[in-house]
Specification:
This protein is α+β, with helices and mostly antiparallel strands and 75 residues long. Helix content is 13%, strand content 25%. It has one helix at 27-36, and strands at residues 2-8, 19-24, 54-59. It has a three-stranded antiparallel β-sheet with strand order 2-1-3, covered by helices on one side. It is globular.
Amino acid sequence: MRLFLITRSDETDWDEYNAALVRADDAFDAARFVLLGENAPEGTSFHGFTEHNIVVTPVTSAGVHGLIIADFKAG
């Protein structure tokens, strides 16, 4: 399993997810997690994510020390 950071390339509205860090076999499965809710915790809805507005980025432990994600937009 690998980690993937999934972000939206468009503007989000209040009470919508802007990003998700997902563990999956590959980028395709990571995208399906947010697009279809496959294997997501019960009741979790990634409303607003579409195949046209997501960016899937592999995350590894390599790189400089620093923040991976801090994402906050509450309404």
